[in-house]
Amino acid sequence: MPALSKRAQSLGTENAFVVLAEVTALAAQGKDIISFCIGQPDFPAPLHVQEAGIRAIREGKHGYTPSAGIDPLREAAAKYMAGMRGGLPIRAQDVVIGAGAKPFIAYAILCTTDFGAGDEVIYPNPGFPIYESQIIACGAKPVPVQLREARDFAFDPAELEKLITPKTKLLVLNYPHNPTGGLLNRSSLEQIAKILQKHPHVWVYADEIYSRLCYSGEFFSIAQVPGMYERTIISDGASKTWAMTGWRIGFASNPELAPHFTRWITNTESCASQISQWAALEAITGPQDAAEMMKKSFFERGQLIVRLLNEVPGVTCRTPGGAFYAWPNVTEACRMVGAKDSEEFRKRLLNEAGVAVLADIHFGSRVPGEGQHLRFSYAASKLAIEQGVARMADFIRRNTRKVA
């Protein structure tokens, strides 16, 4: 057989889908599994959004669109993103529509780094695994900045400053954050911007897909800090806010890079689904009652799961500032049941208790000195949360090693 490229062999994955395959296989065997592994709303897309998609189909909107997206959606997304971010001067021509927000991670790296030149991209660790995967695939050097539990899973700006070199081309920021639910507040972002003022060669990729799911104060973007708008790539989308993960609609904005993103789309997916684009237009411009209901529900579930996890032997959990993820520390629980680390704990929890979660190593290398963690996606019913955490507690109690 002909050989595979090093790029193909080194390409990472998103382990949520790997674990989902494990869960599906166990369920097919008749096992009762409560799953917290996939980060997507468990609600349907709002009814008026569904109707807009059906209407687009019936009106024959089946063909290609311009690679940057249909004009009405670009205009609506520009107004929406600007309104969410303190009235930034985002124009329709600065916005590009993609098949989800995920492709813009690669497009941003491809537009700001050169393959094999030693260019560096700083990204959060733990973090969405596609950051590191795409940095490597695009031929750049991944440089993790460590998130600290004591800082509610933010990083120390002083630590960031030490990582920036003349080779640094891009800084990836994600807030609210996957997998920890952590949030960068205005003060932190202003500190980061102050550091970046000394390094005008560094672009910023602001992954703000969870911007509408912010629970502690109003959402604030680093692009709102004076001097940061022009060098910030703002990434958002329809998936999380309107429960449209499978519709695959994301949008990114930057006045300089929008034409380059458009060419990347022409070279890859051609355009996002026209049907989904019309549905996303309705999501943005139509009633927001369903989106607000989902946010309220996620907030309530977050409060519930944090309270319950903190009652589990050997587990501590901080309250997330946004998104729909809890990131409990299970260092002591691992010791109690004799699991060498969170990954062994996760596997045993799945196979012995029927609870599916992700381990910290699915989101990058463990942060030194930070212990062992799991990720729970609490985009699940309150009953599932109560039963799943109860199973976890029972698993720990049943397996706790007796000390002689």
Task: Describe the 3D structure.
The protein is of the alpha/beta class and 404 residues long. It has 2 domains: 6-44 and 290-399, Aspartate Aminotransferase, domain 1; 63-285, Aspartate Aminotransferase, domain 2, CATH 3.40.640.10. Helix content is 40%, strand content 12%. Strands 2-8-7-6-5-3-4 form a 7-stranded mixed beta sheet, sandwiched between helices. The chain has a 3-stranded antiparallel beta sheet with strand order 9-12-11. A two-stranded parallel sheet has the order 1-10. Helix 3 packs antiparallel against helix 10 (274-285), helix 4 packs parallel to helix 10 and helix 11 (289-309) runs parallel beside helix 14 (382-399). The longest helix has 21 residues, at 289-309. It starts with 5 loop residues before the first helix and ends in a 5-residue tail after the last helix.
C-alpha termini separation = 58 Å
Shape: globular
Taking all Cα atoms into account, the compactness measure Rg is: 21 Å
Q: Which architecture of the largest domain does the CATH hierarchy give at level 2?
A: 3-Layer(aba) Sandwich
Strand order of the largest sheet: 2-8-7-6-5-3-4
